[in-house]
Amino acid sequence: MAPPEPSATAIFYRNLGWLRFVDRFGRKGSAIVDYVGGLAELIGEAILDCFSRPFYGTEVMRQMDELGVKSVAITGITALFTGMVLALQTAYSLEAFGGKMFVGRVVSLSLVRELGPVLTALMVGGRVGSGITAEIGSMTVTEQVDALRAMAISPSRRLVVPRVVAVVVMMPVLTAIADALGILGGLAIAVLELRMTFQDYFTSILQQLSISDISSGLAKTLFFGFEIAAIGCYNGLQVEGGAAAVGRATTRTVVLASISILISDFFLTKLFLAI
User: What does the alpha-carbon distance between residue 172 and residue 217 come to, in Å, rounded to a whole number?
Assistant: First the structure.
């Protein structure tokens, strides 16, 4: 016997399920497009404001201290123990092949090229990005941003530009400090655990590490810093509601900043290897 034909009610509910899926997918896609468009608009406005007066130099310096100098501890500790773990893992992996002498170059190249910039950016994104969103978001919900507009003061020039400039300037500095601390952490393990000498460790580094390795790693952080600050500022300016909305925007900033750092790191690595 032929299977019974589905009833009109069953067909209706089946089509209704597909329509709900398409509607939900369309809403998500529209929200993503709106977000990217708004973020691009803010970035363009901030870039133009960087080259027009007035310049808030004092605010830039304050943000460099708040967002950069106060992040040295968390980025330094992260890099220090990352270098120590790298040294241990490298020695354990290469011990069977007599490759303990390569610990210095593996630690230095891994930190300078990839782990230093990326881990520093992730730590800064978690601390600085969330802080920027919370601060600007609180100003938005308390109508302080509207007050700036009422006084003919551009929120982009007054709030966004100083934070973007501060993070972009301080990211290479934080990364350089993190790289140095990570290499010193590897040195401590090499000397205390692997019985290597200072000379052997640093000789292996100097034989392999080049200026291009250092410059490519530091250049990445300029893009990472810009992404962190731009996403943090935009999410703060888009907050609507009360304290709960600020909390959601802060979480969104940490997630989106981390994702953008990891994605852009791949393309930047491809670019610098091709140059």
Answer: 9
Domain that holds residue 231: 37-270
Domain assignment present for 9 = no
Q: Is the pLDDT of residue 190 over 90?
A: no
Rounded distance between C-alpha atoms, residue 39 and residue 60, angstroms? 21
CB 104 within 8 A of CB 201: yes
DSSP state of 152: T
Which uninterrupted H or E stretch holds 50?
none
Contacts of residue 39, defined as CB under 8 A and 6 or more positions apart, other chains included, come to: 230, 231, 234
Q: Is the dihedral of CA 214, 89, 271, 69 positive or negative?
A: negative
Q: Strand, helix or coil at 98? A: coil
* Overall domain count for the chain: 1
Residues 26-73 pLDDT 10s: 667 677 778 888 888 888 888 888 887 878 888 889 999 988 889 999
Q: What is the DSSP string of 72-84?
A: HHHHHHHHHHHHH
Mean pLDDT of 185-197: 85
Of the two residues 256 and 19, the one the predictor is more confident about is 256
Is 126 part of any domain? yes
Q: In 5-156, at which residue ranges do the beta strands (DSSP E only) sit?
A: none
Determine the Cα–Cα distance for residues 91 and 88; give it in Å rounded to an integer. 5
Q: Is residue 16 part of a domain?
A: no
275, part of any domain:
no
| CA separation, residue 27 to residues 34, 50, 61, 231 (Å) | 10, 35, 41, 21
